[in-house]
Amino acid sequence: MVSTKTLPKAADIQPVRRALLSVSDKTGLIDFARALHEAGVELVSTGGTSKAIAEAGLPVKDVSDLTGFPEMMDGRVKTLHPKVHGGLLAVRDDAEHKAAMDAHGIGAIDLLCVNLYPFEATVAKGAAYEECVENIDIGGPAMIRAAAKNHGYVAVIVEGADYASVIEDIKANGGTTLKLRKHLAHKAYARTAAYDAAISNWFAGELKDTAPDYRAFGGHLKQTLRYGENPHQLASFYVTGEKRPGVSTATQLQGKELSYNNINDTDAAFELVGEFDPKLAPAIAIIKHANPCGVATGTSLADAYRKAFACDTVSAFGGIIASNVTLDGETAEEIAKIFTEVIIAPDADEDARRIIGAKKNLRLLITGGLPDAAAPGLTVKSVAGGLLVQSRDNGRVELADLKVVTKRQPTAQELHDLLFAFRVCKHVKSNAIIYVKAGATVGIGAGQMSRVDSARIAARKAQDAAEAAGLKVPATIGSVVASDAFFPFADGLLSAAEAGATAVIQPGGSMRDDEVIAAADEKGLAMVMTGMRHFRH
């Protein structure tokens, strides 16, 4: 039952006479404990934290001295006790609370410092089910929530980054201020929420529950951004702790701070280039506004870059470049010829770092690896009043999955290019049409309401690229074409044929598939169907 009693209002400054410290991450712990001791604060602690403080020569009481009970059940029960929770929750200025404290020998706890068992890190390292369960903290979240609720009197710390601000407050004011305690309480509830979200989502995965009754998502602030998609929008970047190589886990070697749009586009670029196995060929993806404007593999990384750039030399200006292999000096020289916002790669050699280093505003991100395009995961999108949650599009089409539906069989080169085109297609906004020739995109049509318009735009871009390069005919002549979804009518396919495509890859599944197949046969095209669609909105 929730009490309706009006409780006294706490004073702004609250002295810190006793602190309870119980942390799994002991970074900065001893310096913090020493500063508290020097400020006259009594230290109470548990297990390994108590041992570390004592070994540093600081006086510390074990929590069992407070409760009169030893730690038990392999440490599962140690702080779940009225003398702990009473000390955290008591309203010091309330007569009834004070009487209860006196009657039961409960001492006030004015500062709680807890960081939780490393559940997220345990899951991330691929630990067994039982180990993950044992790393679910129970007493920690209970104490954190108790202290945060009673923030009128108690300060709560959930990460070492706040040690300094608490010590500064105590030194400056003789105690903690209400402003700081509110800030810490807010962070405390957000931390336990993110922690519980990680646990619940892990359980959903273990149970293969794709639609649990409740879904929660949490993250930790990595960066406060200058603005969002537009200057009037506020934005921040939060990381979930997932160890997927990409923009959230990358090390930025140089360049100015990433913007909201940079982060979004860089993620799109690296997820795309992760489709291509670096053991088979180096690959480059150039992204602009979350859509590729050029993708290619090559005999070298520089060759791949030149082929990708040739697809759309205009849109590449101010773009994002992703590589599936270590960035080398020759490729860096090519990239440096035009303005580029971000380069992301598994690594960069010394020559590349030196060349890019001369471009002070160009961001260079190193990831240490590639994202696994076939790995499961979740994507989340907000809508008014809710969240749309779906599994990551980790669908992969291989040669054996292709079904030839036309009279003409595709050639070996066409099959290679068709698979390449379909993998690119997966990362282009719908409706998507991709022309590919010799392992490189030569025309991209993205985000149109009509598939015919996408086919025509892609062909038009190829003509523009040919004119810019001084070529007599566009590279779509003799190319293959991919569509992210079926052709509802033959007109889209006919537009691709007019552009010079000789082979087509598409999911199939239209009521008019027979019409489309007949049109392909009439034009002498080879066509394969995948049975898998790749809409991307």
Describe the structure.
The protein is α/β, with parallel strands linked by helices and 537 residues long. Helix content is 37%, strand content 18%. It is built from 18 helices and 21 strands. The chain has helices at 29-38, 47-55, 63-67, 82-89, 95-104, 119-124, 129-134, 139-149, 163-173, 178-207, 260-273, 301-311, 329-335, 350-357, 412-425, 451-469, 490-498, 513-522, and strands spanning 18-23, 42-45, 61-62, 111-115, 155-157, 220-225, 235-239, 251-254, 283-288, 291-297, 319-323, 340-345, 363-366, 378-383, 386-391, 403-404, 433-436, 441-445, 480-483, 503-506, 526-529. The chain has a 6-stranded mixed sheet, with helices on both faces. It has a 6-stranded mixed sheet with strand order 16-21-20-19-17-18, with helices on both faces. The longest helix has 30 residues, at 178-207. The chain starts with 17 loop residues before the first strand and ends in an 8-residue tail after the last strand. The model has no long low-confidence stretch (mean pLDDT 92).
